[in-house]
Amino acid sequence: MKPFLFLGTRAEDVAADGEYDAVLRFSGLDEGDLRRVRLESVPLADAVGVVDTDDWSGIILGGGPFNVSDPLADKSAAQLRVEGELRALVEQVVAADSPFLGACYGIGTLGVLDGGRVDRTYAEPIGALPVTLTAAGCDDPLLGVLPATFEAFLGHKEAVSVLPRGAVLLASTATCPVHAFRLGRRVYATQFHPELDVDGLITRIGVYRDYGYFDPADAEGLIAAARAAEVHAPPRLLSRFVELFAR
Questions:
Q1: How many Å from the N-terminal Cα to the C-terminal Cα in the chain?
Q2: Ranges of H-type helices in the chain
Q3: pLDDT value for 223
Q4: Are strands 187-190 and 100-103 parallel, antiparallel or unpaired?
Q5: Which parts of the sequence belong to the Glutamine amidotransferase domain (predicted)?
Q6: I want to staple 102 with a disulfide (CB 3.0 to 4.6 A). Which of 61, 71, 235, 246 is the partner?
Q7: pLDDT tens digits for 111-137?
Q8: Which pTM does this prediction carry?
Q9: Using CA atoms, how far apart are residues 44 and 38, in angstroms rounded to an integer?
Q10: Are strands 58-61 and 180-183 parallel, antiparallel or unpaired?
Q11: Which residues have CB under 8 Å from 108's CB, separation 6+?
């Protein structure tokens, strides 16, 4: 089997390692089949050379604190480099209709293509919310493995307010119209986090408590709510992505 490529952007080791470990666990892949690159610390070309999508079964992009809607003056040199690398990569991926699954930051990366807009209109607080599939989502080979409505962990400052041309809307919440979409047949983005379980969310609440996602005084309440949530379905996306596209 050709390996999958996992791209992370989290600078904090505990969050970065936890995300990668969760993707390994829920996808059913081992480290030899899921090559990891931490883009925040190393340019993509230095890590794997020129990316040829034919060399990979698929690409998975994790989340992180970068937001494409951040003011340009506030973006670090690392963020600007990562955005440029990912823009070039996803343009290649879309052109080839190569398997791609971007979680959270994937929405920002794919959502600005071809007339799409990503802004702060539909931000949602950290926690669990019900996500509902559209009719197209229920019929989709990837998203269709999930119940028509399911609980998912999420938390984001930006979201898609206008879909890219040709995008197929797959899922929404009551407070964010675009929670998943597809470009072509095999390029996907989700706003919710398919890799997140309770322990993972609690870790991120601790890591990102001062990043503006929530009032730090609310951290213990968010942890309690996470422990009470019934989030079981989303990780199925990761194993299904492998089932569909491993080659």
A1: 5
A2: 13-27, 44-48, 77-96, 105-111, 135-139, 198-207, 219-228, 236-245
A3: 97
A4: parallel
A5: 38-196
A6: 61
A7: 999 999 999 999 999 999 999 999 999
A8: 0.97
A9: 8
A10: unpaired
A11: 66, 67, 68, 69, 118, 158
